[in-house]
Amino acid sequence: MSNHILVAPSILSADFAKLEKEIKRIERSGADMIHIDVMDGHFVPNITIGPPVVKKIKQYSSLPLDVHLMIEKPHKFIKEFADAGSDIITIHAEAYSATNDKQEATKKGTSKTTHKIDEARVKKVLGQIKSFGKKRGLSLNPDSSFCLQGILDDVDMILIMSVHPGFGGQKFIDKVIPKIKEVRSLYKGDIEVDGGINDKNVRSVIDAGANIIVAGNYFFSSKDPKEAVKKLRP
Fold it and tell me: What is this structure's pTM?
């Protein structure tokens, strides 16, 4: 785990009509990596981008690409995203629940939660990510509660969602703070938190145990990206 707080602006809030300029904006800000949300319209209701866009971003930036797969059956696409230039590939625990249920997030923030993870399948996919030389991430939705002890040795990062996945610009869900603390009590590696984070609530997220901060709307709505990043490292 890095002792330095890392900041990863999420391009979900970027202007895709001028994506190259937005990427350069991230680089000039002093941010540490670029967070890329991939959505398929099934696991979550929104649709975003795929490997070709990740590949183009890699051509324009030397920053690590933190690719978050909010998709059904991510194992089918690990090679494509690895080949495109991803440095971190994160899958959702909910994509491999033993009952094969998926999150039903909506723009209003409702969701159905499953509580039993198919540990063997998750470990297999994490091993697949590692085989391509990429860091392995595992993500948890706000309402999900899984027993992770058997998987912690197989991940390089845990991503805790602080909004219901699928759309940017949502309000931070305060009840994830105890979840961050719980995960930190069990896990010594990187903990990333994504969703609704700004300069007003970031301190509580860091104090709870997170060391990687994802910021989308807060970063891209700022007139001074450098100052925005600075405020996310209080």
Answer: 0.91
**Cα gap 22→60, rounded to integer Å:** 10
Q: What is the homologous superfamily of the domain 6-231 according to CATH?
A: Aldolase class I (3.20.20.70)
Is 144's pLDDT higher than 90?
no
Q: Is the pLDDT of residue 126 over 60?
A: yes
Residue type, 151: I
Cβ(209)–Cβ(1) below 8 Å: no
In contact, 98 and 116? CB cutoff 8 Å = yes
pLDDT at position 116, please? 79
What's the number of CA atoms in the CB half-sphere (13 Å) around residue 67?
Answer: 33
Reading the block at residue 162, the tokens are 């602080």
Which residues are identified as catalytic? 37, 194
